[in-house]
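Saturday, quiet lab. Running sequence design on the structure tokens for the scaffold JK sent over.
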């Protein structure tokens, strides 16, 4: 898996206005001060991306409705019936 910290300079040269990093010491503060780029230091960049994305897109997961069907037999039939019921109620657009 690639470490995005290795691509900060390239991102800045292509116009990035802010970077989110875990490793505060990777690039000196002077790099950010001279480029005008905001450095945001977090404990976990993956978690930060999830939080920032949810905020930016208006927390779409809050609008999801999930139904779990478990068991040994009948899952396919049960999910098919549930799908048809939701279609009748116009709560889903198909899928």
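Result came back. Writing it out in full:
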């Amino acid at each position: 898996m690639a470490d995005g910290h290795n691509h900060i300079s390239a991102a800045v040269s292509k116009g990035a206005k802010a970077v989110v990093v875990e490793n505060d010491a990777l690039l000196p503060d002077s790099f950010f001060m001279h480029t005008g780029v905001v450095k945001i230091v977090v404990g976990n960049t993956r978690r930060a991306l999830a939080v920032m994305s949810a905020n930016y897109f208006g927390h779409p997961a809050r609008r999801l409705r999930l139904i779990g069907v478990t068991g040994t037999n009948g899952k396919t039939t049960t999910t098919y019936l549930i799908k048809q019921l939701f279609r009748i109620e116009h709560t889903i657009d198909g899928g």
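Notes for JK: The CA atoms of residues 19 and 90 lie 42 Å apart. Strands lie at 18-21, 38-41. Ask whether to fix the surface positions before the next round.
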